[in-house]
Amino acid sequence: MKMSDETYKKVKWAVSVVLPALGVLVGSLGKAYGWANTDLAVITITAITTFLGATMLYSTAQYDKEK
Fold first, then answer.
1. Long-range CB contacts for residues 46-49, cutoff 8 Å, separation at least 24
2. Would you say residue 2 has pLDDT above 80?
């Protein structure tokens, strides 16, 4: 699947900035407020971020091969 450069930049920003920041926010607030399953939520966010980052890296490598 090919995406436009604008879409790629938005996805890259979300994966490299927003999702890691969300993981830290949930982890910090969860511990501070005693939320149940905070660790599970952080692990889930981290796993999703890692998966998306890996698929973006693969997609970028494939795109660069075509050039």
1. 48/19, 49/15, 49/19, 49/20, 49/23
2. no
- Give the model confidence (pLDDT) of 7-59 as tens digits: 888 999 999 999 999 999 999 999 999 999 999 999 999 999 999 999 888 87
Structure tokens at 4: 């436009």
Measured at the CA of 60, the angle between CA 57 and CA 64, to 5 degrees, comes to 140
Rounded to two decimals, the pTM is: 0.82
Burial class (CB in 10 A: 0-12, 13-18, 19+), 61: exposed
Question: String of b and e for 46-60 (b: at least 16 CB within 10 Å)?
Answer: eeebeebeeeeeeee
Place of tokens 């997609």: 59
